[in-house]
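Section: Multi-chain targets

For targets with more than one molecule, the full set of components is provided together so that the structure can be written out for the assembly as a whole rather than chain by chain. Components appear in the order listed by the source. The example entry contains two components.
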Amino acid sequence: MLKRATLTAGAIALAFPVAAQAGMDEAKALVETHRQLPGWEAPGEPFDARACMADKKMFVIPLTNANPFNATISQGMKQAADMVGFELTEWENQMQPDQWIQGIAQAVQEGYDLIDLQGGLPPEFLVPQITEARAAGVKVTATHNWDATTQEVPDFMDGAANTDYVTVGNIIAAWAIAQSEGNVNAVILGPDEITPTAPLRDAIMGYLDEHCPDCSYQYINAPVTEWATKIQPAVQSALLADSSINYVLPVYDSMSQFIVPAIRIAGREGDVKIVSYNGTPFVLDMMRDDDIVEMNVGESLGWVGFAGVDANMRLLCDEGTVTKLNTPAYIFDDSNVETAGVPATFNDGYGDVHIEEFRKLWGLAE
Amino acid sequence: MRQEFFEEYEARIAALEERMQSFQAAIDAETAAQSRFSWKDQLEKYGLLVAWVLLILVLGIFRPDQMFSWPPYATMFGSQAMVVILTLGLIIPLTAGDFDLSIASVMTLSSMLVAVFNVQMGLELGPTIFFCLAIGAMIGLINAFFTLYFRIHSLIVTLGVGYFINGMVLWVSNSNTITGVSMNLIEGVILTRLLGVPIAFYYGLILTLIIWYVFEYTSVGRRLLFVGKGAEVARLSGVNLNRMRTGAFVASAIIGAFAGILYTGMRGAADPTSGLAFLLPAFAAAFLGSTAISPGRFNAIGAFVAVYFLSTGIMGLNFLGVDTFVQNLFYGGGLVLAVAISQLIRNRQPM
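Its structure, encoded as tokens over all components, is:
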């Protein structure tokens, strides 16, 4: 009996590191996959976009024009529309709901065929206006708002081209596991009120749970309006309370500007690293200039713009439904951060394979 | 007809003299009261300090390892220095009876200009800091001009000027966050430590002591107080109201600009909006501080204690791992309760 118990305990002891090693191998493989320059995967069958869009026009309402993230997606959308040759109008606003409402009314009044709520503008805030626009025959979509796998597009929308936030969250967790050799103690931060936070947060925590038995973490909710006043004290306190914390994982990289001073002031520079998502230029600059930001998952926003326009055109032309943007997630670290530009931009470093491929897909190639 | 005018003016002058005498009597009574020991007065003066100690003790019951050790306080003293300075900037115009709602915008503009001058234009730190402070002074003069020349309430002027500055910040930064500020600035704000506390704390402490001295022991400080308590009386007593209020606006804006320099120094980066979030915490600390040390008056040491009292609460709640909303409940609820208790002790005299 004793022998059997000993054997069982031995088997568990042996199996545990095996499971941990398997998790580690998987994490390293995921990281390696996303270190490669983004490749092309067509979102659907080729179609004659110019002919279909000849009499149609699109109206884009970004979350705000004051955010370079949204502005760069809009630029990509305009570039795509110019390439195809149809009218695309961007509605200037500063993240005020009354301006969004006015934008929808304007689009309906001027006979646009489609309204795209771009880059995080929450459609849930505008259900009456969206319903009214759809009743007037205007299609309403969203680009880069919901998660492509865990969140459903509500019935009051005609469609949405979504992002694979789960993969992004997995990459962040996989990187921390791989770099720390399976010894992550992380502070994860996110603003719960923002739509993509839940899939990103849950993916990071789920991946750590599943692939790293020795890893631990704590989660802090930091609403966007309180980033400046809340993040630094919260991270400082966490670092002071637990000296074994080695990673801070904010779900959006813009939060890093409040985390860096917390790490410095707590005297933990060198021990604690930041890994995050968005490929925001100033965070890539921080990575290049300092040693606190270790890795950032980015995506070409120009590509997001092209992919969003592709999904919208397919909806208007009855060419099938696209629910997931085909923009790949790409890892920036010290080894390749300079390819993002000095100073970094939202578009450099990813290559531009998408431009030629979308041109072919839309029947525009010579 | 002229006789009637003279009589009316004489009556008004007599009424003002009566008010001046009543002010003098109040000051005399206050001085006399200060010379007599009273537990109630002591509680009123040092209540916030006592509450701070109690707060540490209560939180320490749950988290003794953190709440009863020095490093968390050393860290907090450094990281909150910028809020202390912003609050000190606020209490100057508040003492003169004016609100400066543009101070957080000035801080944000200064923070961004440090990055623009230093990173994008390659200017050395010395001239960068000088220009930022000078631009702060200029904004103070603009606030004073519109408030005093056009006789518009300072609340309206500084609200408008603040919005205008916010637009300027978005313009000069192209809505971007700028990083790469000289490491010398970061060294001079948080990386250099004295007794384990980042040097920024000592900037806040020195400024607190300067403003405390000016308010308590100089004629300028006294005149500023008179302007705030009774502008007309102060004017008839020979105080140059315009000069005093202009000085208060300019001092507030320069201090706001200084807070902006520290804000960039703390992060090594500047963004166009986040600094605005500090306006309400600074006002909260200014009002909470006015209930302590010199109760009923905005005072520097009270403001200093108030910032760290509120920060200690937030730090303790962070250690306890409570939800974010509890921190807001503590901040807002603590402010209103503390001021209400202080008012009860002061027999509900107008603040």
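Residues 1-14 of chain A have pLDDT under 50 and may be disordered.
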